[in-house]
Amino acid sequence: MLADEIKQLPTRAEVAPALTWDLTPIFSDLTAFNDEFKAIDDAIKGLADLQGQLEQGPKQLAAVIETMMAVIRRAEKVYVYASLKHDQDTGDADNQALSGRTQSLMTRLQSQLAWFEPELMAVDETTLKQWLTDSSELKPYAHYIESVTSQRAHVLTPAAEQLLAQASDALGASSNTFSMLNDADLEFPIVTDDDGQTVQLSQGVYDQLIQSTQPEVRKMAFKQLYSTYHQFIHTLASTLAGNVKTHNFDASVHHYDSARQAALNRNHIPVAVYDALVTSVNAHLPLLHRYVALRKKILQLPELHMYDLYTPITGEPQLSYTFETAKAEALKALAVLGPDYLSHVQTAFDSRWIDVVENKGKRSGAYSGGMYDTAPYMLLNWQDNLESLFTLVHEMGHSMHSYYTTHNQPYQYGDYSIFVAEIASTTNENLLTDYLLKTYSDKRVQAFVLNHYLDGFKGTVFRQTQFAEFEQWLHEQDAAGEPLTADALSSAYLKLNQHYYGDAVISDPEIADEWSRIPHFYYNYYVYQYATGFAAANTLASGINSGDDAKREAYLNYLKSGSSADPIDVMKRAGVDMTQTDYLDSAFAEFERRLDQFEALAAEL
Ligand SMILES: [Zn+2]
């Protein structure tokens, strides 16, 4: 492509203000920001003086928490402002400086408060319990205090914790080495793209090429990508094993039964949630087998390989949305959530909470971000297609969750845990799916929307649970003293992969090494939440769509709950008991119903 044919992105200054987020409600200008920054910096220095007062009585304890939270709250505000500024144009030197300054401010804040949790846990258990019952000052903080102190049995002496903190950089080396190799040093071969052009393979290029409609293109990308990882397979087994050993070590010195229990305990999630997921997904693997077999049939391939799983099977739909039409569609799709919800979505559109279009230097992808005292802003990189509409309702789900939480909870409960976060966003995606299926009768559009849902379910519920099972196996092997060699990892992974996809897919030998390139295996029991969140959202959306007002109210109450209760209790009140398999069964029933629809439609096309 000639240089002058390449579409140029606008600079930040060239983007119409109406399509940018308005950050002036946070700080009117840089002077206001700088004044507040300096005031907080001074306030942070005073935090160490609060040390030693927690045992003095409930009034003192409440006063310390209030002072501390007031400073954290102000610091979060400058931090959010700087990071939003930075993301809108990461190439801007002033924004870089702003972001750097607030990051170091947050580090100073954390180190000035390092004493707080150990000191709170050192308060005598019975005394503290009495205070929480008697003291009106402490009541608003009861759940927060109980959350912190429930970890008591797993905290070592201050000297031991300090020693571990000093070792943490060294213990994290395996994970860093993986990132360096994976993000910086690995060099991939030259391959051919859809247009017959040669292109150097990268993670981003691979994601494109594996979706190619030309079998040779995706096969080549697959073979070449894995040949590169395979050259470093022993190194990659070693970095992953080192990381697993760190988790197991950390769990064992903190008196946990397992690394899994330690990781889940951070959000007070019982391991039963994990087990329910794995059990239910395994029981429903025949549905995945059926779906991939259908994929093989529609693509008319003599053999279905692992590299044939991402190419679209229904082609591109004729649907296209400008941001303006997408807003109208989003409002219609989310109308089932009621007039109150809808009015806040309208506010988000009218008050410039969304940074819409791409510009030079803007952070890629999409997110919802903010804090207690700011609007829940959204960053998008809008394209006129259905995928962007899905992204819009997804991020709107996060933002409305934040909006309802901050408007119904005090600051100390004005946030929510990652375990419940993706439920709000994915519920909206499910509502959009329902709306589109009801609204568009064109069979090709119907098939495309159904396929979008089925692929999402496959990639989130089935695939992430496969990862979760493998992660669990890794930690158990290491805990049992079994060496995590490349051969051991690859043969276990291949077996698991065959189990998941069944006989319809050829388990290409390369896929045995897939574990070596998944960054999420370094996150410490993170992936299962994608699967539980998607399944819960699927079930909740069905309830909302059924027109049952009680179910809709229960859902809105979840959005309003923030962190005022443990995530598992919040979801229970919304009607989903995530320690049981019922919610998973009903999500699989929906998957099956839509698979039936898709199969019938595909036969007609
Ligand atoms: Zn999300």
Automatic annotation (TrEMBL):
InterPro entries hit by this protein:
OligopepF_N_dom, OligoPept_F_C, Pept_M3A_M3B, Pept_M3A_M3B_dom, Peptidase_M3B
For whether the record's keyword set contains Ribosomal protein, the answer is no
Cofactor binding, note field: Binds 1 zinc ion.
Q: Which residues form the Peptidase M3A/M3B catalytic domain?
A: 209-589
Which keywords belong to this entry? Hydrolase, Metal-binding, Metalloprotease, Protease, Zinc
Top-rank taxon:
Bacteria
EC code(s) of this entry: 3.4.24.-
Q: Which Pfam families match?
A: Peptidase_M3 (PF01432), Peptidase_M3_N (PF08439)
* Domain Oligopeptidase F N-terminal, first and last residues per copy: 119-188
Q: What class of enzyme is it?
A: hydrolase
Tagged with keyword Metal-binding:
yes
GO terms assigned for molecular function: metal ion binding; metalloendopeptidase activity
Which coenzyme or cofactor does it need?
Zn(2+)
Question: A Gene Ontology biological process annotation?
Answer: peptide metabolic process
Similarity field: Belongs to the peptidase M3B family.
Task performed by this protein: Has oligopeptidase activity and degrades a variety of small bioactive peptides.
| Listed name of the protein | Oligopeptidase F
The species this protein was found in: Secundilactobacillus similis DSM 23365 = JCM 2765
